[in-house]
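A.,

Following up on our hallway conversation. Structure tokens first:
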């Protein structure tokens, strides 16, 4: 041991490590709690035994008791030792249940579980380079739809539409495209609210497009359509008044081609809304970002690697504001502005235009 070895620092880090291991384990258990509906079952319920909670949730009592033990020792639920009952405090329920909408953080716990599936693949690409393709992530489409969906439900009409010129613009009847649309919730919300406008969604995942079509059909939307298409080959010219991308540029294999294609596909004067994870392009400026470790982890184990799997640059989830603005400018966009919406603090909303009119 060298003389300048700081024992206090080592001891503090040992506690940090314990917290990390417990946090990782709890994230998995909270993902299970979300998927089994345990948090929803417990919300608002008086102190109850493990057996009562298992019965209410329709789950096996032995598993529920062990899960509750993890939750109680992790400080997620309260345990009354005398009566052997458990309760989910209201202050916690507001971040853990489906009723919490965009505040429900258990949705994100599911990403920890999903990324665990590809750990072997990631170790392999650390050694050999390349990337892990989309088809290795079982359940990605559904998870993405759930986590971004809980946000759009809250923000799309009341908070995002005002950024885009307000309801009047959509009521006048415009052509809108969403590139990298996933399973289509964003466009379906818009299509339902504004039957006067026409909405087109593109994604290269056939599975996502099938889910998007099903969603539009279920709502009987005739002004919304979806197509399987590579975003780098949109091949449209001056066709749309508005194009959006939600969380769909940083993980592209050919992001510059995508941005150039979007620019070309807009009518002169048209608007591009590019929504990307809120971050700085400089690591040191992200140290205070509450979920920076999560962002860099999901980047390494998903967003960056899927880009590299198809020969892309692997921009990463935290490619950040400086780079995004520079690349939008390079693609020809003008009047670039970085803004945001109240109920989506995790993303930056870059508004820009194709010059003209
Ligand atoms: C992070 S997800 C976001 C999905 C959706 N916009 C949302 O917010 O839920 C990125 C999406 O981009 C799609 N994507 C990635 N590369 C693409 C490409 N080259 N062409 C079209 N879609 C692509 C993926 O299939 C995925 O649905």
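Then the amino acids I'd put at each of the 357 positions:
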């Amino acid at each position: 041991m060298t003389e300048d070895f700081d024992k206090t620092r080592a001891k503090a880090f040992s506690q940090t490590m314990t917290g990390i291991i417990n946090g990782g384990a709890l994230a998995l258990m909270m993902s299970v709690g979300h998927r089994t509906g345990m948090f929803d079952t417990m919300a608002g319920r008086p102190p109850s035994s493990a057996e009562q909670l298992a019965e209410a949730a329709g789950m096996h009592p032995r598993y529920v008791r062990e899960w509750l033990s993890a939750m109680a020792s992790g400080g997620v639920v309260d345990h009354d030792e005398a009566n052997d009952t458990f309760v989910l405090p209201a202050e916690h329920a507001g971040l853990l249940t489906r009723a919490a909408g965009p505040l429900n953080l258990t949705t994100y716990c599911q990403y920890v579980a999903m990324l665990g599936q590809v750990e072997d693949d990631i170790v392999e690409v650390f050694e050999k380079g390349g990337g892990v393709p989309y088809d290795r992530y079982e359940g990605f489409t559904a998870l993405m739809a759930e986590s971004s969906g809980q946000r759009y439900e809250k923000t799309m009409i009341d908070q995002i539409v005002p950024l885009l010129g307000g309801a009047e613009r959509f009521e006048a009847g415009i052509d809108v495209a969403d590139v990298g649309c996933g399973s289509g919730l964003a466009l379906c919300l818009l299509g339902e609210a504004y039957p006067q406008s026409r909405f087109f969604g593109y994604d290269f995942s056939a599975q996502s497009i099938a889910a998007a079509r099903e969603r539009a059909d279920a709502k009987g939307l005739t002004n919304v359509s979806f197509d399987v298409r590579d975003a780098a080959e949109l091949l449209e010219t001056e066709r749309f008044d508005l194009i959006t991308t939600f969380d769909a540029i940083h993980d592209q294999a050919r992001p510059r081609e995508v941005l150039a294609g979007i620019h070309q596909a807009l009518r002169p004067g048209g608007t591009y809304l590019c929504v990307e994870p809120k971050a700085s392009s400089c690591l040191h400026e992200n140290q205070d970002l509450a979920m920076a470790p999560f962002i860099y982890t999901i980047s390494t184990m998903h967003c960056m690697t899927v880009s590299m799997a198809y020969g892309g640059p692997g921009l990463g989830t935290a490619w950040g504001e400086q780079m995004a603005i520079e690349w939008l400018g390079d693609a020809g966009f003008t009047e670039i502005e970085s803004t945001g919406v109240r109920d989506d603090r995790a993303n930056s909303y870059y508004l820009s235009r194709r010059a003209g009119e």
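Residues 122-353 form a domain with the Rossmann fold fold (CATH 3.40.50.150). Curious whether your intuition agrees with the design.

B.
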